[in-house]
Amino acid sequence: MSTSDHAAVVIRVATKADLPALGRLATLLVRLHHDFDRARFMAATDQTERGYGSYLGTQLSERGTTMLVATVEGVVVGYAWGSLEGTDYMSLRGPAGVLHDLVIDEAHRRRGIGSLLLEAAIASLETAGARQVVLSTAARNENAQQLFTRHGFRATMLELTRDMEHHESERRGEA
Question: For tag attachment on the chain, is the N or C end more exposed, with fewer CB atoms within 10 Å?
Answer without folding.
Answer: C
